[in-house]
Amino acid sequence: MKKTEQNFKKFGKRTRDLRTKIVDQLYPINDAINLVKSAATAKFDESLEIALELGVDPRHSDQMVRGVVSMPNGTGKTVRVAVFAKEQKHEEAKNAGADIVGAEDLIEKVKAGEINFDRCIATPDMMASLGAIAKILGPKGLMPNPKLGTVTMNIAEAIKLVKAGQIEFRVEKAGIIHASFGKASFTVEMLNQNLKSFIDAIVKARPSGAKGTYLKKAHISSTMGPSCKLDLASINA
Question: Are residues 126 and 186 in the same domain?
Answer without folding.
Answer: no
